[in-house]
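INFO  loader      accepted 1 record
INFO  loader      residues=123
INFO  predictor   begin
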Amino acid sequence: MFAPLQLVGRKLRQEFGERAIFRTANLSDPAGFRAANADLLRERYDGVLYLGIHHHLDASTRAEMLRYAISLTERWFALRTSHALAESDGVFATLEARGFARIAVAASHEAAHLGELTLWERR
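INFO  predictor   done
INFO  writer      dumping tokens
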């Protein structure tokens, strides 16, 4: 874990006690991730943050991880990845096919490097 994340983790742990649990995981192995974290994962979440993840995943499994993250989403799905990769991987089409509509786009001077930040809401 990176040092800044450790500091944030410690602060959250102080505030939330035993309810704050931090683990590392390989998201390029969706089945392994689900198995290793089954004791913590809920069936659904009001919102899922999928920020800066997609373009780092192994190309052979990233579509599966995307579908899994979407399946956990009750209402809002926040996405940040490059627009070109989202288009070529069918990320936007996948979200739309699963009942989501894009409700906000936040472009910044970093968008070329980090990708657009988009917010999707389940219809």
